[in-house]
Amino acid sequence: MDYKRILLKLSGESLMGAKQHGIDETRLAEYAMQIKEVAQMGVQIGIVIGGGNIFRGLSGASKGFDRVKGDQMGMLATVINSLALSSALEAIGVKVRVLTAVRMEPIGEFYSKQKAIEALERGEIAIFSAGTGNPYFTTDTGSSLRAIEIEADVMLKGTRVDGIYTADPEKDPNATKFTDITYDEIYNRNLKIMDLTATTMCKENNMPIYVFDMDTVGNLKKVISGEKIGTLVHN
């Protein structure tokens, strides 16, 4: 096993499952089981979830919301998703700690690196919510920051797609998949796997990113076991 400590980034959109918005309980339960499976292998797990299934700051700004308030609404959406995931994990006997980047006790504890690492070393799953606590930063940047802070071995980006392609595979049937790719190549090809801030942070801090399909049950364990089912991004 290559990874002792991971940061798992989950998309809010994926939590919708078959629904148009909100949280699909089936998808939530599947995620919880996959996370439990990997935790039982002895992997320390930090998690960041997006909020796009509830509210997305950028699309709010395009509809007339103030960008800062829109982003704050997005941060709160990630807290709702984090509570849902922590609830699903606790229901199957997994110990979880929710840490928030904005003070909101008793919903979650205020984030600090020390608290996060202590939780991980106790064998708890640490869920980092409310992004970075600042507007203009996405949850991708939030997860890059947390991955670097907790000194994770890798940032696993769970998406609907099974890796990084030359073009959007949902739109271009001729798109081909990379098994691995450098950060520089992502810049040069202008591939949109994460926003530039997030990608740059990982590049500068030598944090590898592994992009894979999280919506297929069993895939998280495959990644941890070393199966090459996604795309590795590295320097």
**How big is the Rg?**
17 Å
Please report which band the strand proportion falls in: under 5%, 5-15%, 15-25%, 25-35%, 35-45% or over 45%: 15-25%
Topology as H/E string? EHHEHHEEHEHEEEEHHEHE
Oligomer: single chain
DSSP strand tally: 11
Q: Which regions are unreliable across 5 or more consecutive residues at pLDDT < 50?
A: none
Average the pLDDT over all residues and give the rounded result: 95
Helix count, per DSSP?
A: 9
Strand order of the largest sheet: 4-3-5-2-1-6-10-11-9
The major β-sheet equals: 9 strands, mixed
Return the structural class: alpha/beta
Chart the SSEs and their pairings.
Blueprint: E1 5-10, H1 12-15, H2 25-39, E2 44-49, H3 57-62, H4 67-91, E3 96-100, E4 109-110, H5 113-121, E5 125-129, H6 139-149, E6 154-159, E7 164-165, E8 177-178, E9 180-182, H7 183-189, H8 196-204, E10 209-213, H9 219-224, E11 231-234
Parallel strand pairs: 1-2, 1-6, 2-5, 3-4, 3-5, 6-10, 9-11
Antiparallel strand pairs: 7-8, 10-11
Helix pairs in contact: 2-4, 6-8
